Amino acid sequence: MNWLKEGGVVRAGGLCLAGGALAFLVVFSYLAANFNYPDVLDGPAATVLPSLLATGASGRLVWTIYAFLPLIWIPAGVAAFEALSPVRRGAMRLAMFFAVLAAIAMMLGLMRWPSIHWHLALAYGQAGTAEQATIAAIFDGLNTYLGNFIGEFLGEMAVSLFFLLTSLAWLRSPQRARWIGWVGVITAVAGLIGMFRNVTDVVAPIAAVNNYLLPLFMIVLGVVLIRWRADPMPPPSVP
């Protein structure tokens, strides 16, 4: 209980958030160099599946690690709630739920690569022309459902709403460095717009900017939570 009172949960969540951002960058860089990621996501099965199999056991391991990295959103959501719930309890409880939703959605999207897609890649290399067409259809369907809709759209929406609610609570708190809250709001809005990149190319530039804002704000918010010292808070306001 003393550990909780001293803000250990908040600092642990901040460490997960900042460390997770750095881990995302490392894994992303590896996949970009060895798998042409993320451009490969738009490729056909005939190109992507053999390339996936060519990454070998190490590539599959990296994809597995990547698939579990979204778990960092859960302690991050709890940490943000513990830190800012005295300001807006209802909003921060909702933010915590969005963080959990983000973790689940992103994991479901990423887990298809070292699991279903890996077995599709094994089958594709030994299949005839008709069977390859069937595997390609399954591959495309999984990418649309688990990738575009679940992992990207739902996952990114949940992350952006977590950032937005947390940043608005930060702006209403007595904490200093209000620029942190504004950076979070900008990142959240950019994410909510950029998640429509699979619908229209008009938002592609915003999505590209958000690719830099997202890990940056993850690190900033993580460091803030790691260094968290509770200041006297006003009574909770009605969300």
Explain what you see.
- With 239 residues, this protein is mostly helical.
- It has ten helices and no strands.
- It has helices at 2-5, 8-35, 45-54, 56-68, 73-84, 89-110, 116-126, 129-171, 179-194, 204-226.
- Helix 2 packs antiparallel against helix 5, helix 5 (73-84) packs parallel to helix 8 and helix 6 (89-110) runs antiparallel to helix 8 (129-171).
- The longest helix is centred in the middle third of the chain and has 43 residues, at 129-171.
- The chain is elongated, with a radius of gyration of 20 Å.
- Mean pLDDT is 91; it is low at 232-239.
Q: What is the strand and helix layout of this fold?
A:
Blueprint: H1 2-5, H2 8-35, H3 45-54, H4 56-68, H5 73-84, H6 89-110, H7 116-126, H8 129-171, H9 179-194, H10 204-226
Helix pairs in contact: 2-4, 2-5, 2-10, 3-7, 4-6, 5-6, 5-8, 6-8, 7-8, 8-9, 9-10
Query: How would you describe the shape?
Result: elongated
The radius of gyration is 20 Å
**Secondary-structure content class:** mainly alpha
Count of runs of 4 or more consecutive helical residues: 10
* Low-pLDDT segments: 232-239
Biggest β-sheet, characterized? none
The gist of it:
The protein has 239 residues and is an all-alpha fold. It is built from ten helices and no strands.
Identify the notable features of this structure and list them briefly:
single chain, mainly alpha, 10 helices, elongated
